[in-house]
Write a structure and sequence with these properties.
With 332 residues, the protein is an alpha/beta fold. The protein folds into 2 domains: 234 residues, Alpha-Beta Complex (Spore Coat Polysaccharide Biosynthesis Protein SpsA, Chain A), CATH 3.90.550.10; 72 residues, Hexapeptide repeat proteins (UDP N-Acetylglucosamine Acyltransferase, domain 1), CATH 2.160.10.10. The chain contains 7 helices and 26 strands.
Length: 332
């Protein structure tokens, strides 16, 4: 099966971090979010992947190239103008057409068993399968309602007529399997959404549309809070599988585990790092500095006698001597 990763968004809720780096390149335990997604697909035998891009695309393509270093074959679909979820899928039709294909958001970290989802989709002969979780969170996504047979019976924009007596609202995870016939429902070169413009019409036409329930780990990296939490979760081993984690063992007294260090970091003997702290490559930490529950990207400098707590520091940020940062988000 082929797959598409949706990666063209701006990541506005993660500003200022995403002003100079695209959201898919934000590091989680020193690996770009997008690398975690690619790893998930590859683990389930999906190697042919197209990714749509808009914001700072060269930073993504320069890092991943054709995908061979990551064990996959990557294609890039550039969108000079944002086309929306469905519009982006339509633009990538040349790489996806001809068979069922999987679509996944680039900003989710999850251990969804994609092999089981694919088998479920085929067994149901479904036109669309959405992977969902328990919950009703309209602030995260438009509500979707299913009947007792896990068939989708209502979503925003579709008629409420002939609804069953009993329905359950579910939370969409951003993972879905589609059939190529969906391309006929999407206009070319036009901003178009799936849940708002395409799926309601499929529902009106009574196509078989089902949900697959995921009860394992899932987190949407849409806010600074969730960005912090996903790294803590991975440190704590809450997600099955995933990229191998490199835990750093600093000398006793210097660090409280868990911590992770990038390459070529310079840390003073009197500094203290952790717990739940990540330092990217080429970070420098001065004498008696303390960094805890924080994420420092590449090239961060933390001065002498400074204290960084529950903060995210972007590439190249400098913390002055004796400076205290608490719950700060800084970008160079």
């Amino acid at each position: 099966m082929k797959a598409m990763i949706l990666a063209a968004g701006f990541g506005t809720r993660l500003r200022p971090l995403t002003d100079k780096i695209p959201k898919p390149m934000m590091p989680i335990l020193n690996r770009p979010i997008l690398e975690h997604t690619i790893h998930l697909l590859r683990t389930h035998g999906i190697h042919d992947i197209v990714i749509n891009l808009h914001h700072l695309p060269d930073m993504i393509t320069d890092f991943f190239g054709d995908g061979r270093k990551f064990g996959v074959n990557l294609h890039w679909s550039h969108e000079p103008k944002i086309l929306g979820t469905a519009g982006g899928i339509k633009k990538a039709q040349q790489w996806l057409d001809g068979e069922s294909f999987l679509v996944i958001n680039s900003d989710v970290v999850t251990d969804i068993d994609l092999s089981e989802v694919i088998a479920f989709h085929k067994a149901k002969n479904s036109a669309l399968t959405l992977v969902v979780r328990e919950g009703d969170s309209p602030e995260q996504c438009d509500p979707i309602e299913v009947d007792e047979d896990d068939r989708i019976v209502h979503m925003v924009g579709a008629s409420s007529m002939n609804m069953p007596d009993y329905t359950t609202r579910v939370l969409f995870t951003g993972v879905q399997i589609m059939e190529p016939e969906i391309f006929d429902r999407i206009p070319e070169n036009k901003f178009y959404g799936t849940t708002t413009d395409v799926f309601p019409g499929m529902l009106e036409d009574a196509l078989p549309m089902f949900v697959y329930w995921h009860n394992g780990y899932w987190r949407d990296i849409g806010t600074i809070h969730s960005y912090h939490e996903v790294q803590k979760d991975l440190f704590d081993g809450q997600m099955n599988g995933g990229l191998p984690m490199r835990i750093s063992n600093l000398p006793q007294g210097k660090a409280l585990p868990p911590t992770q260090l990038g390459k070529y970091c310079k840390i003073a003997d009197t500094a203290k790092i952790g717990p739940y702290t990540v330092l990217g490559d080429y970070c420098t930490v001065g004498d008696h500095a303390v960094i805890e529950n924080s994420i420092c990207w590449e090239g961060v400098t933390v001065g002498k006698n400074s204290h960084v707590k529950q903060s995210v520091l972007g590439n190249g940020v400098t913390v002055n001597d004796k400076e205290t940062l608490n719950k700060k988000i800084l970008s160079q």
